Amino acid sequence: MFGRDEQAKIGSVPPQQRQEILAGLNLDLSWEYAAMIQYIQHAAVLTGPEYTQVIEEELEHARDEHEHAVILADLINYLGGTPTVGVAERLTSEDNVEMLRQDLQAEYDAIARYLERIAQLESAGQYDSAQKIRNIVLVEQNHAINLEKALGIRRKSVAARM
Ligand SMILES: [Fe+2]
Ligand SMILES: [Fe+2]
Questions:
Q1: Cys bridge to 84: 26, 75, 79, 95, which one at CB 3.0-4.6 A?
Q2: 160 C-alpha to center of ligand 1: Å?
């Protein structure tokens, strides 16, 4: 339950803007469910001695995505929407490296979606909700960093490009 002041604040967001935000958050939620499933499946089928550490990280990521799904579902409910039970696309492969690439792309996509969501929430004056998404996107960035390292991706330094 929340007080009258908070209800008034949420109610002050124009209906169309609120619908757009809720649709976006439900999209994010469906991708969090998908990411959790994908990580669990990949952790189970990744194989080879060089992947022992990566498998542990994938399981850690799965737990983080579960936590994100719970935060999003509560946030959607708080903002007056109904959390989806829909699950977005899950990918897998028989190739270890391809699975890690799929996971990394999903993290890049999640980061892009969350940055858009933060902008939407802030433009609606929902700074508290935007902060929750900021906390999530920081974790996604760390997931992306872990996967880039596992894949041996080196980012060129700025100095090297000059
Ligand atoms: Fe997540
Ligand atoms: Fe993630």
A1: 26
A2: 32
